[in-house]
Amino acid sequence: MRLINTTTYEFSEFHGDDIPKYAILSHTWENDEVSFQEWEFSRERQRRKLDMLKLKRRVDWRQKLDWPDVVEGKAEEVGTQLGKQLREELSKSRWFTRSWTLQELLAPSKVVFYSKNWVVLGDKSSILTHVISDITGIDASYLLGNSPITAASVALRMFWISRRRTTRVEDMAYCMLGIFDINMPLLYGEGMKAFVRL
Hints:
Blueprint: E1 2-5, E2 11-13, E3 23-24, H1 36-41, H2 43-53, E4 65-67, H3 84-92, H4 100-106, E5 112-114, E6 120-123, H5 128-136, H6 140-143, H7 154-162, H8 169-174, H9 193-197
Parallel strand pairs: 3-4
Antiparallel strand pairs: 1-2, 1-4, 5-6
């Protein structure tokens, strides 16, 4: 596994039992994403981009390693109670419509949601559970890990993904691999054939 050291901005490789605790910061892709090639060949440029994206504000400040992604959130206001405006703003977030973020929502035991200004909105096991369930159509028992994803019928899992979008046709099939616990190579350019292989 390749992780970014958030102190040095260097990649570090880890294997087997040597993998440390880390945070995955999920987001939807934009045009100015930092590529691996850019990272390797122009670290200063990456530091400027990462500062702009506020990657330095990682989910858990006690950790020294983060996976190279950033959370996108659209809600601006957080009070002591979840208000109607927060619910409406979360429901407009692109994060809930993109295909790859489905497994990023379901797989981890803890998911913390931030606004675009890095205000903590809550996590999937808080008051946000029912809001996220309403937005995604995913029962709270699956969100909280009380029911394993594999217990959901194929039709139900297909329903979850049907509400999401991809940039590439193949990604709609590929993003389901983890949801269905399937391993297969990704062959970009195969188009709809990816569904046949799935």
